[in-house]
């Protein structure tokens, strides 16, 4: 398994690996990631071994910095070859991220079957380049098929989600997290690194609801922003009340999503998959700084089904966000309908479809 950098690439790989292990407990699975990615922490937590290679993305603003990137890539390619020679895999699965391309490409040169999974509605350049040499391209969204050249290789699977997100139980999740059974729970996050614009809007939401009974605000601020937010609160003398939880990183996302009445978040592919599988209504705020505006299209499938509302960042105003939260909070019937429609969009069979596609080839 190769992929990483962010949770959006790592967790789908873990979900696939978990399913392979479930079907074949004797399977020997090795993860390969980037030295600076989150995978070096997250993968061992799940009980898998991991190797790290020195790779990085190209700098489009300062081309001179790419000299170092190319050196890393050459070194990473050499290490990829040695890892594959030493491990002797039957197949290699790439889920995106810096390490994915050299591992998949090297495996292809060594005549080892390869597969890739594209999480987003608008695929990245790397997966489009890898398409030619892989056996199958698994798609998180059907729309992504428009951007690939070999339709016979495409399998619309959805985005694989770990087992703990399946069959959410709100009461158990709230008891586990210490939340009141009847309070309104708002969960906000911007991915593993955080999202500055969402954090900025949520600071005003926190001020508005601070100390109010019957509502709880949980913010996953992200590792990049957490310290600055907490320092700014201290400097201003603002003290978050007991109904406010501000975290650097949400470790148990499955429980928080199960406990939440409403989510405010970006719409990365994995976030959309985990949110819909959990049946949680969402206010999606797509990042405008991504290739092909793919987060908007990720969210659009859920919004068109009635399970989410899209607020584009250019239209995000703090007071309007609070008004939208208030409107939904006051309408439990509408939230219930959104929850059902969100759940209908959940890719509950994705992991099975992907493993069927890979292991079916291997069995033959």
Can you walk me through this structure?
- By secondary structure, this protein is an alpha/beta fold.
- It has 14 helices and 12 strands.
- The strands form 3 sheets. The protein has a 6-stranded parallel β-sheet, with helices on both faces. Strands 3-4-5-6 form a 4-stranded parallel β-sheet, with helices on both faces. A two-stranded parallel ribbon has the order 1-2.
- Helix 1 (7-23) crosses helix 14, helix 6 packs across helix 9 (253-259) and helix 7 (196-209) crosses helix 12.
- The protein is globular.
- The two termini are 21 Å apart.
Average pLDDT, rounded to a whole number, is 92
Termini separation (Å)?
A: 21 Å
Q: Please mark out the parts with pLDDT under 50 across 5 or more consecutive residues, or reply none.
A: none
Overall 3D geometry?
globular
Radius of gyration: 21 Å
By helix and strand content, what is the structural category? Answer: alpha/beta
**Largest beta sheet: strand ordering:** 9-8-7-10-11-12
Features:
364 residues, alpha/beta, six-stranded parallel β-sheet, four-stranded parallel β-sheet, 45% helix
